[in-house]
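Posting this for the archive.
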Amino acid sequence: MEQVADPAVGISLDELQLAVRNHSMPLEALRHPLTPPWLHYLLIHYDIPTVDTTSWRLEIGGLVERPLSLSLEDLRARPAVDLTVTMECAGNGRARLDPRPVSMPWLGEAVGTARWTGVPLRELLDDAGALPEAIEAVFTGLDRGVEGGVAQQYERSQRLDEPALEHAVLAYAMNGAPLLPQHGFPLRLVVPGWYGMTSVKWLERITLVDRPFDGYQQATGYRFKRDEDDPGVPVTRMLPRALLVPPGVPDFHTRERTLGPGPHLLEGRAWSGHGEIERVEVSGDDGKNWFGAELEDDVGSRWAWRRWTAEWDPMACGRFVVCCRATDSAGNVQPLEPVWNVGGYANNAVQRVVVTVAAG
């Protein structure tokens, strides 16, 4: 059952346990085109499984003509491809909703961009030979736990006709190095454009089925719901978001920023799973007035974030709220305020950075 927090209680010990096991990306890491693996956001649903690669195999079965059983060496022996992807947690921004859904309390930095190396998913599915009645592929990870009262392995499915599967990769390397245990060693799925829950880690099995998968993570979790009785609709592709590298220096407790008089060059990154980023705008007065930023493409991937820069001159000393917002090629624009849902998913309301401009 989904829950919302009592405003008088604040972050619970249960949520704190989640927060110390998982981590977001420090905003200053937006300066990197590729996020170092140890700075890339991390969400582990259950435990990190210990995997013996001498016995581990990827099984591909179900409604296929030729079931496959592949070792890590078998996969590495195939021609490799690289896929550079910005990946964001579906719960990113949850902690800023009111009332606040009880779960991992992300503020807005649950994101990262990496170059994943591996085998094209479609190539392996073609080798297995999907039978005509197969409509979905179910991806099963090795991690096990209990969620919503249901004992389970982490599993998600994708329709075989989903366009993103044409680009999806079964990755065994991240930024040119073997996957770290927390990022899915020895093999994980990477589906570009979709929120991170889709990219199943510690992959052990792919099963083709003839009906929609009704496992917990598909039918109950990761759905937009207005209330607990609403069956909801699935969370899918990432909504547009721009993030700013906070300027100046931070206060230790509040993270509010202090800097000298301008002008100042602001910079950040923007991305969307619905289309390329076409515009980023910046405001120095909490969204009352906006001016355009310059876009760059220093990563070179349709599925990755774009760098943006903008010169901001506050013209006076004082306290300012700096915002940025993105627009993608499908016409989606970041909202100023969040849209509430029970699970706290896909809150892409604009980032607000409090800045004090002080002389001397």
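The mean pLDDT is 96. The CA atoms of residues 73 and 142 lie 19 Å apart.
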